[in-house]
Amino acid sequence: MFELSEDHEEFRGLVREFAEGEIAPHVEQWDQDSHFPEDLVPQMGELGLFGLNAPEEFGGAGTEHGGFTYTCLAIEELGRIDQSIGITLSAGVGLGINPILSFGTQEQKETYLPDLLAGRALAGFGLTEPDAGSDAGASRTKARLEDGHWVVDGSKAFITNSGTSLTSVVTVTAKTGETDDGRPEISAIMIPAGTDGFVVEPAYRKLGWHISDTHGLTFEGCRVPEDNLLGERGEGFRQFLKTLDDGRVAISALAVGCAQRMLEECTAYSQQRQAFGRPIAVNQGVSFQISDLAVMVEAARLLTYKAAWLKDEQEAGRRGVAEVKQAAAIAKLYSTEAAVSATRIATQVFGGNGFMEEYPVARFYRDAKILEIGEGTSEVQRMVIARGLGLPAR
């Protein structure tokens, strides 16, 4: 059965020290200013955080020293300090690097991966559209071949790491034709930053994740070489499903970091805050809620790291895709809903102070809700789980 090794825990400590030293002192101001700290990305790269799943050939940690579980540990620890920084790593690896690593040609990998793995660059993944989220078949972005180039027209919404000065490329899904049975043919195409016709829209005004870089993208007659196709033509739908399966476990780790921080904040605050001459922790109405938090954290962490372990086992050829897919959906569903509940409980424990931005629980409360939406909503996770149980589809 899975368990975290001494090396895993040592690595966790390394990332925690970095997060508490380099992020925690600044995060309140960054959040207030909606400032994305670009200089932090190379620092994360120097720690090797972007290359934990990648081979040494391109500057990654290699199979002997890396693995998906290490990446989840890093995301959890960054997310414990700030969810925006955690998603920067999660999206940078899961949505930016992994599609190139999994489906790219040798030339594509050699072109992009060294800088991405070192934290000198970021990549995005454009799937969601204003009128098409989980239903990728409803995508209106189109690409046609013309004189050896793909010409892309359309738009994407809510794309992470897409508008920074470090952004080197965004992979987008687009309709490139129809299949034999009349369904949309979806392909993935890599569009380098700065390409003519590639327009990065102004940053969103968001409820949470204020530090994270998020933009809408527009493509107007955007031309890229035919060789910028990522993987096989018509395989974009399958590619994005695999990408989301991996990303769901990463989001689960981010949720664990959120819930863990709420447990720590509530435990400390309830012993300091006095009411009627005694700490509020002596009241069962408070201590029972904090006990529930502890249960949520423990369950979410076990589900998440079981799924991460299964993913590593799958990469080693010892587990099947279906088992990992089911574990990822279960972990994502439970952990993200637990994180949202944890921030609600924490805000209640803090009382009026929980509504004040000077306390971190307010920021985590704002940040948590998106966890139930991104990388597949809770409803989608329930659908995946039901199918994994063999229940009939609608």
Automatic annotation (TrEMBL):
GO molecular function, one term: flavin adenine dinucleotide binding
Record-linked InterPro entries: Acyl-CoA_DH_CS, Acyl-CoA_Oxase/DH_mid-dom, Acyl-CoA_Oxase/DH_mid-dom_sf, AcylCo_DH-like_C, AcylCo_DH/oxidase_C, AcylCoA_DH/ox_N, AcylCoA_DH/ox_N_sf, AcylCoA_DH/oxidase_NM_dom_sf
Keyword match Oxidoreductase: yes
Pfam family, one: Acyl-CoA_dh_M
Keywords: FAD, Flavoprotein, Oxidoreductase
Acyl-CoA dehydrogenase/oxidase C-terminal domain boundaries: 234-389
Acyl-CoA dehydrogenase/oxidase N-terminal domain mapped to chain residues: 5-119
Ranges of residues in domain Acyl-CoA oxidase/dehydrogenase middle: 125-222
Keyword Flavoprotein in annotation: yes
Cofactor: FAD
Family according to the record: Belongs to the acyl-CoA dehydrogenase family.
The protein's name: Acyl-CoA dehydrogenase
Native source species: Serinicoccus chungangensis
